[in-house]
Design brief:
The protein has 179 residues and is α/β, with parallel strands linked by helices. 46% of the residues lie in helices and 17% in strands.
Length: 179
């Protein structure tokens, strides 16, 4: 009987710890929006839009989520300086963006029309898309980036440095917050 009670107590402790750990992870990560939500938000509180364009089968997309988008510095930048959007390039739902309805109608294989538009037909996953606070496309950055490489890219667009200098000039003087 003592063994059963101790096993139950250990099981309760494990469940409690696992639950609180999952809750903590959920509240400390990137706040992801849909593209429709981001479009509404920029009307009242303008910010640039960051779009992570991914697919479910892309292992580099999973690595980007797990390693880069979980780094505290990256999370902070995305949550405070952008409206971060997660977009499944093979999603099935219609999306209304900037007055146009985008579909996944099979005309682009498994690829959603919005992904084709955002990535300008250059389908590569993962790819991140930067838009200004008017939802105008600035650029697409394809490929996996670790947090130390992603930070200056994010800040280049968050600080609107792209208006006055090249990325190369910006990155040479950039001081990282990542230790």
């Amino acid at each position: 009987m003592k063994h059963l009670i101790s096993k139950v107590l250990i099981l309760i402790a494990i469940i409690t710890f696992s639950s609180s750990s999952l809750i903590a992870q959920g509240t400390s990560g990137v706040k992801w929006y849909t593209i429709e939500e981001a479009e509404k938000l920029i009307k009242n509180a303008p910010r640039p839009i960051f779009i992570d364009t991914y697919t479910d089968w892309c292992s580099w997309c999973v690595k980007l989520d797990k390693e880069t988008f979980s780094h505290p510095v990256i999370v902070n930048i995305l949550n405070t300086k952008f409206y971060a959007v997660k977009f499944d390039a093979e999603g099935k739902n219609d999306v209304v963006f900037k007055g146009t309805t985008f579909k996944n109608d099979g005309k682009n294989g498994r690829t959603h029309q919005l992904a084709v538009a955002l990535l300008q037909g250059k389908m590569s996953y993962p790819s991140v898309v930067f838009m200004n606070e008017n939802a105008e496309l600035l650029t697409v950055v394809p490929g996996f980036r670790q947090a130390p490489e992603m930070e200056p890219i994010l800040m280049f667009f968050a600080d609107k440095a792209y208006l006055t200098q090249t990325y190369d000039a910006f990155s040479q003087s950039f001081k990282t917050s990542i230790k």
